[in-house]
Specification:
This protein has about 375 residues and is an alpha+beta fold. It has helices spanning about 1-70, 80-85, 110-125, 175-180, 215-225, 255-260, 285-355, 365-380; strands at about 90-100, 105, 135, 140-145, 160, 185-190, 195-200, 210-215, 235-240, 250, 265-270, 275-285. An 8-stranded mixed sheet has the order 2-1-8-7-6-5-3-4, with helices on both faces. Strands 10-9-12-11 form a 4-stranded antiparallel sheet. Strand 11 (about 265-270) and strand 12 (about 275-285) form a beta hairpin. The longest helix is centred in the C-terminal third of the chain and has 71 residues, at about 285-355. The protein is rod-shaped.
Length: about 375
């Protein structure tokens, strides 16, 4: 029994306690793994959205070169706006400016949207307006105008997608932003409204910049197409693209997942091309992962309980067998003790009378001794 307790019962109880204790650690590990998968998915989708914007920028460059055709960029007229909008629907307004600060297109006498664009952006595009320029570097947001400050809220600052101004002088106007790059994007907030500007330089005349203000509404279907989660994770996560006003611009997965008030598991910013836009990852079935963990925990607890029950039944059987063996041993001891007692009494009587026969006793005594010894002999038989 002692060997059984030391070798089996005690280690089993210790292992059962460790197994029950590990259930909590297992739940935390499962949650951590789910979070890491969500973070990886958010980062991957943010890169896909940014790549879609890059593809759209290249598409614009091709369309802009197609509009000017074989003519030199310096010969472009105010009709560039109308031609680009007709040929490339995502363009809300097409513009042409020179590096020296002249605005060729759109005309002030064009459609209302073009006039509004000139009023809001002409000073900036013609290098007459000083702005704060922010670049999302790998180490975070850097204010290229004042390197000792960080942009935290929406403001009239400009987000530049090309870091060419780093290492040169601080960027303050459109000419400083574009530098020597062949193309890029500029995002700026005008009256708290986000404007996305694509710009491109034709190699034939780098001094002329062809650009377009893009309709965000035409970009959203393209971005939604890029918001595809890896098939292996499609059933587990729902991806949401939020705009700068924290409204849902697009999503893939279950609509109820992000409307149930659940906080996102992970989020990733798009970057300079769409400032304050981000991708959020929600669990498609918020209670599914917890239910799976609870099921696994219940299974482990059930197995531990069954093992403890089996060990308890085995211990009871061993104790019961020990009690039976002890009772049997006690009965054997009592039997031997009784038999010994029953043998010892006649033998003592016989020994006493035999000692009397060493000297011849009187005839009467001899007859009595003979009768007693016969009785005791019969008793032992």
């Amino acid at each position: 029994a002692i060997v059984f307790i030391i070798a089996v019962v005690a280690p089993s109880l210790v292992l059962a306690g460790l197994a029950l204790r590990s259930i909590r650690g297992q739940r935390l590990a499962a949650e951590r793994q789910e979070t890491l998968l969500a973070e990886a998915a958010a980062g991957e989708l943010a890169r896909k959205v940014e790549a879609t914007l890059d593809d759209t920028l290249r598409e614009f460059a091709v369309q802009a070169d197609s509009v000017i055709g074989t003519n030199p960029p310096s010969a472009v007229t105010a009709a560039f706006d109308e031609s680009l909008r007709r040929q490339w629907p995502p363009a809300a307004v097409g513009f042409v400016v020179t590096v020296n600060g002249s605005c060729i297109s759109p005309s002030l006498f064009a459609h209302p949207e073009a006039r509004k664009f000139r009023i809001e952006n002409e000073r900036f595009l013609c290098n007459a307006e000083t702005v704060e320029v922010v670049w999302n570097s790998p180490k975070g947001k850097i204010n290229l105008t004042e390197l000792d400050s960080t942009l935290r809220t929406k403001s009239p600052a400009v987000f530049a997608s090309t870091p060419d101004t780093v290492g040169r002088r601080p960027a303050r106007n459109f000419r400083d932003i574009i530098g020597d790059s062949p193309g890029g994007t500029v995002a700026r907030f005008v009256q708290d409204e986000l404007q996305i500007l694509f710009w491109h330089r034709n190699p034939a005349d780098p001094g002329v910049v062809l650009g377009a203000q893009v309709r965000l509404g035409t970009l959203i279907p393209r971005l939604a197409a890029a918001l595809r989660i890896d098939p292996a994770l499609a059933d587990r996560f729902t991806a949401v693209l939020r705009d700068d006003s924290q409204l849902v611009a697009a999503f893939t997965g279950r609509e109820e997942a992000h409307r149930s008030g659940v906080r996102p598991m992970a989020a990733a910013d798009i970057g300079d091309k769409l400032p304050h836009w981000r991708v959020e990852i929600f669990p498609s079935h918020p209670g599914l992962a917890q239910a799976a963990v609870r099921t696994e925990q219940f299974t482990i607890a059930l197995l531990v309980g069954v093992l403890l029950l089996a060990m308890g039944v085995g211990s009871w059987l061993i104790v019961h067998d020990l009690q039976r063996q002890l009772l049997l041993a006690r009965q054997k001891t009592d039997f031997v003790s009784n038999v010994s007692h029953e043998l010892r009494t006649p033998l003592t009587v016989l020994k006493g009378y035999l000692e009397m026969t060493e000297e011849p006793p009187p005839p009467a005594m001899w007859a009595k001794a003979h009768r007693v010894m016969m009785e005791q002999t019969i008793r032992m038989d």
